[in-house]
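Appendix B. Extra example for self-study. Work through it before the problem class; the solution is given directly after the inputs so you can check yourself.
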Amino acid sequence: MPVRVQIEDFDVARELAALRAGNRSIGAVAAFIGTVRDVNENAQVATMVLEHYPGMTEKALADIVEMARSRWDIIDALVIHRVGALEPGDQIVLVGVTSAHRGDAFAACEFIIDFLKTRAPFWKKEDTAAGARWVEARASDDEAAARWKVPQEPAA
Amino acid sequence: MRDAATAALTLVYLARLREAFGTASERVEPPADVTTVSALRAWLAARGGTWAAELAPGRAVRVAVNHDLADADTPIHPGDEVALFPPVTGG
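Solution. Structure tokens for the complete assembly:
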């Protein structure tokens, strides 16, 4: 269940082909790609820098994938998240999930990105014509993660 | 004799909090009664100024202890790495 944090862009087709290579029990591949929007209403294009917490980032992504693996019947999962300087139109993140059936693949894929957006230690800083500003976390992201209602571990 | 190097906590500040505090990391030795995340937060806020403003109750600050997300009651032990950061915005 590979997770990668990298500066370089990724090739979606190549990564998904590698994810499902040689495994004929796979009946479904679900994928999510997050991309940089041109967040300014005017013609000026904003750039963005993605910061992360070296030492924790890959561990946090692996933990989220493990949560998905334990909850749904998936065969494999891949998360690639870029860091560094990005521009509108750039790819930010790829989540890929393989399963025998589409229900588990879709659900696990959506779960992983919802939890990544509220638990994985990345922060975006936008450069605009008016100066640099940190992107604020959204309540809608917390709501998206909360709706998965992760069951609490019973007390020992 | 207590080894001061391992008794210290390593504090890490990320993103906007790093800019607000003016430092990315420091080693501290809080009093012995600082044994939880909430106690550490209050102890740092007592520095006043930007620390008090950013770490006041109600301010959205996330904490990780040894690279695991923590909450107010998470215990802190000598030698731990404790990171403070704003709500995350990846993806």
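Self-check: Residues 37-45 of chain B form the longest helix (9 residues). If your reasoning did not lead you there, revisit section 3.
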